[in-house]
Amino acid sequence: MATETKSNAPAAPNAADTRHQHQVLTGRVTSAKMEKTIVVEVLRLVQHPKYRRVVRISKKFYAHDEQRQAKLGDTVRIVASRPMSKLKRWRLKEVLARNVSEEIKAEIKRDRGAEQ
Known about the structure:
Distance between the termini: 42 Å
Number of helices: 1
CATH class: Mainly Beta
Number of domains: 1
Oligomer: single chain
Structural class: mainly beta
């Protein structure tokens, strides 16, 4: 699930454009209750140094969501940015996949309201 990649911007002659290569992570939203802030859990698979078994390592990142478009359970891509608060150093780049169960629950609720 977690992919740590560098953004591949085309090489431009302007030094300001090629100065920063921001880190990009993909993870799942675990909390969207704060104002314009989401908590993203990034899952990595790492081989244990001694036992050589693949272990899941998860880490939480606080990310800025200006339009409040990410919801609980969504798969999102976040990009490293300037510090915005004590814990927030990432911003939402895009929502990759919506949480299907939330959409289905909302649809069922609408259907029940229409029947009554």
